[in-house]
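A reminder from the course coordinator: this example appears on the midterm review sheet, so study it carefully.

Given structure:
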């Protein structure tokens, strides 16, 4: 059996965070006591968002190469950042926070409104971008801000009341703070779209918004939870937090420095913070590799393969983004290539890889765990179609480099073809993940040996 849930494990058991994560494996996900209805809609909707991005990308690719500020391009970017990436992070963090903190999720009674409020806000905002309707932008942006404040309240109270604050929790605390700032800046930009009160400073605000969103919220969160998920999924026992703590300080100093430097147009601060960010990213890539090298589960499954390739994209994309921001030599095709590498190569496929573990476990735990020992149940990996997962992996990581190269040389027709193949890969991965919920393997009774009559003495 691939999963073993130990009934004796309780949230109040005295243990160190690293040891519990490394030794319990996937059984750690069962300790949070989070009902399935809370994280699962976020995770599945995020997978749908990935498929939508893949479906729209070939058609919007020419517009993106010509004008990244075109309404349809902005709509696609926000589907990716809000409907795909942020949607998955919200669901995963609500499930993982009690596991990481060894503490219950606080303010959970507020959580029922979180998903519908956020979904309506994102859909309205995307419609506003697609149709260039100011009212939809403002209403959708306001709803997203309220939903983010709602989420931040749940996570903030949970983090504040936890008795332990392991490494991943520190990253989550910082990233939730960045998310609140990003939402406020986004609403400000939506209002400026109508009233134009920012004037020439709108470009500086946009750079700060992108930095805090892509690096502060998305990247900081993903780097932080990777210290829990890689240890959990790959069974990493002997990996300390020392380097991760230094990376945390270096990364967040760089994020704040870059955001302030962009907002105030201080080139010297941008340069110092940019070099710090490059150092933090490369150190994280080194630390990630260390975790994989000392893993106990030697076979690299689809989750580890996606994660390892994604970290490679991170090690290239963020330094390239820093260089482009500092030297100001970015052409529109270069920005498109950079966005693909960061949003799809690093963030997107990391999250798809983790979904291959998290969604099947949640479904297995709800549907099959009660029958363990009494009936024959499928393994968790059987809930995912492994061949389709491998095909989608190679489609994504074969088409994405081609799309990036074609974007850099501004070869529109080839870019559309590569984007189409990339879209098929994303759609296959999303369908595979969503299919876990619909797939019902029959539960067969275990054949028990016949009972032998006992002879009377």
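Designed residues:
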């Amino acid at each position: 059996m691939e999963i073993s849930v130990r009934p004796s494990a309780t949230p109040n058991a005295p243990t160190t965070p690293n040891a519990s994560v490394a030794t319990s494996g996937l059984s750690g996900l069962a300790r949070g006591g989070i009902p399935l209805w809370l994280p699962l809609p976020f995770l599945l909707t995020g997978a749908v968002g990935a498929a939508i991005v893949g479906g729209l990308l070939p058609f919007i690719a020419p517009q993106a190469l010509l004008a990244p500020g075109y309404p349809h391009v902005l709509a696609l970017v926000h589907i990716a950042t809000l409907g795909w990436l942020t949607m998955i992070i919200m669901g995963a963090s609500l499930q993982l926070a009690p596991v990481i903190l060894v503490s219950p999720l606080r303010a959970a009674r507020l959580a029922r409104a979180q998903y519908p409020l956020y979904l309506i806000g994102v859909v309205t905002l995307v419609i506003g971008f697609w149709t260039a309707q100011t009212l939809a932008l403002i209403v959708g942006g306001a709803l997203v801000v309220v939903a983010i404040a709602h989420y931040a309240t749940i996570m903030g109270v949970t983090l504040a009341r936890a008795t332990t604050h392991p490494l991943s929790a520190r990253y989550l605390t910082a990233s939730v703070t960045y998310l609140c700032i990003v939402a406020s800046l986004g609403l400000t930009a939506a209002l400026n779209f109508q009233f134009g009160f920012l004037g020439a400073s709108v470009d500086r605000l946009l750079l700060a918004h992108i930095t805090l969103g892509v690096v502060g919220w998305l990247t900081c969160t993903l780097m932080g939870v990777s210290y829990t998920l890689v240890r959990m999924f790959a069974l990493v026992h002997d990996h300390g937090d020392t380097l991760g703590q230094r990376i945390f300080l270096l990364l967040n100093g760089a994020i704040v420095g870059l955001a302030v430097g962009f907002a105030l147009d201080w080139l010297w601060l941008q340069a110092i913070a940019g070099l710090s960010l490059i150092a933090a990213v490369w150190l994280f890539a080194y630390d990630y590799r260390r975790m994989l090298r000392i893993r106990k589960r030697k076979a690299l499954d689809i989750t580890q393969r996606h994660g390892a390739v994604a970290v490679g994209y991170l090690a290239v994309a963020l330094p390239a983004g820093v260089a482009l921001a500092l030297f100001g030599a970015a052409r529109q095709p270069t920005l498109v290539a950079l966005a693909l590498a960061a949003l799809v190569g690093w963030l997107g496929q990391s999250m798809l890889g983790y979904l291959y573990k998290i969604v099947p476990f949640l479904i297995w735990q709800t549907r099959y765990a009660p029958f363990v020992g009494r009936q024959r149940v499928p393994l968790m990996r059987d809930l995912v179609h492994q061949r389709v997962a491998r095909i989608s992996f190679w489609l994504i990581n074969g088409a994405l480099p081609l799309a990036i190269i074609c974007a850099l040389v501004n070869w529109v027709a080839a870019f559309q073809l590569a984007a189409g193949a990339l879209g098929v890969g994303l759609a296959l991965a999303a369908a595979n993940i969503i299919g876990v919920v619909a797939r019902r393997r029959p539960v067969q009774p275990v054949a028990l040996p016949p009972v032998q009559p006992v002879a009377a003495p």
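DSSP finds 13 helices and two strands in the chain. Residues 332-367 form the longest helix (36 residues).
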